[in-house]
Amino acid sequence: MKKIIALLGVIVVLGVVGFGVHSVSHSQKKESNTIVIGSQGSDFQIWQYIAKSEEAKKAGLTIEVKQITDGVQLNKATADGSVDVNAFQSYAYFSAYNQQNSEKKLAALGTTYLEPLGIYSDKYDSIEAIPDGATIAIANNPANTARGLLLLQKAGLITLSDDFDALSGVEEITKNPKNLVFKQIDDTTGPRVLKSVDAVLISNTVALDGDLNVLKDSLFHEEVNQTTKNNINILATAEENKDNASFKKLVKLYHNKTIQKYISKEFGGTKIEVDKPLSYLEK
């Protein structure tokens, strides 16, 4: 009996100690002023630079940057709070995620930039020079297919149906005066197929990896206007954190002149700054 009582005493003490450790750990996490930003690719590089910058210190922000390469998982990590804010996605991607995850939605904090999608060619030096029957390589994933077709329409090469939406494909082309032939490709291979097709649509991130500058090397590219508002990148957080004052400071920090000077130089001006109110996206 004495042994049993002693054993129970040890268990109670360990339980109290364990509870205390858990309480302290939880309290420390709750009181931490560090903002965890989840990102990927070139955005990860940008936020690593921002986290170490004097501008972040002056703003009173302590930032930790985590790299999560899967966009859906990054959004889920943000929604469940293991990441405070994420920096990687367009407004269109964000909207689609919220539609598919209505129980744990994200909220936009502010706009950052537009990376223009471009039409490139190794064979022709203008849109007008693209011949009848030309083969155009276009992304094989729905969001980028639709974005590419909208750009081709803006360039005057095709006309799309009135029902065209963010997930529409080539079946929604109503006019194709040059009888263009569309070849769907993995959009990360764009620079590699330049020589084998007449023209190819390449996202800016992929273009940069292929030593292409959309502003200098493309025949035609997106510009910042209402037709491209869904392609503007944003900072996002869990819906319950949308009014967090520290998180909102990140938007202002991103648009700091010194930070923008670094981004422009590092990426050849291809991350076009968009400092607009959220109402601009919601119109």
Task: Sum this structure up briefly.
The chain has eleven helices and 14 strands. The chain is α/β, with parallel strands linked by helices and 283 residues long.
Strand content: 15-25%
Global Rg: 24 Å
- Unreliably modeled segments: 1-31
Work out the number of β strands.
14
Give the neighbour order of strands across the main sheet: 2-1-3-13-4
Which secondary-structure class do the elements indicate? Answer: alpha/beta
Fraction in helix: 40-55%
| Number of H- or I-type helical stretches | 11
Given this structure, which CATH class of the largest domain is correct?
Alpha Beta
Supply the CATH architecture of the largest domain.
Answer: 3-Layer(aba) Sandwich
Shape: globular
Largest beta sheet, briefly? 5 strands, mixed
Order of helices and strands: HEHHEHEHEEEEHEEEEHHEEHHEH
Q: CATH-wise, what's the superfamily of the largest domain?
A: Periplasmic binding protein-like II
As for the number of domains, it is 2
Oligomer: single chain
Q: Average pLDDT, to the nearest integer?
A: 89
Q: Kindly, what is the distance between the CA atoms of the first and last residues, rounded to a whole number of angstroms?
A: 75 Å
* CATH topology assignment of the largest domain: D-Maltodextrin-Binding Protein, domain 2
